[in-house]
């Protein structure tokens, strides 16, 4: 579908080039290997953008992935190659990923994958889903999520902090003469 569009020009072309420059073949390869570990597909796990696009474009593998993490996440996977059916699969994957704990800011728009506009955000979403997969007893990928570090302070410790003057209020240490700010006044 995207091959029938005119090429972007000017500032739009620069913005698209910046988006494409973020894409990393190694991270995409790691992501496809993780998908293969969970679903048994795809046969080719090369991390180049062409392969990632061809493997994920119809959304069926994405739906299999979330169903492998949590059974029944996507009820109906469309096998049709029609554009709207494929985009329904991608959208069903995105909804299931959000339910599995992927933050909304780490997801992508359906059009980012379908028209190959931003494969970087697709990989980011899959990496985020990979971190959440550990919560469901599945192998995870990417950096480990931070754990909560709750701290408890006594009333005495809290009151001790009220007697400290913050540096935002200035200091009485040192000498203030000779400090100039801006230009001097000429008379």
From TrEMBL:
Q: Name one GO molecular function term.
A: actin filament binding
Q: Which GO terms describe its biological process?
A: actin filament organization
In the UniProt record, which is one GO cellular component term?
Answer: actin cytoskeleton
Name the family: Belongs to the calponin family.
One Pfam family assigned to this protein is CH
Q: Report the InterPro entries cross-referenced here.
A: Calponin-like, Calponin_repeat, CH_dom, CH_dom_sf, SM22_calponin
Q: Which Gene3D superfamilies match?
A: Calponin-like domain
Q: Which SMART domains match?
A: CH
Q: What is this protein called?
A: (diamondback moth) hypothetical protein
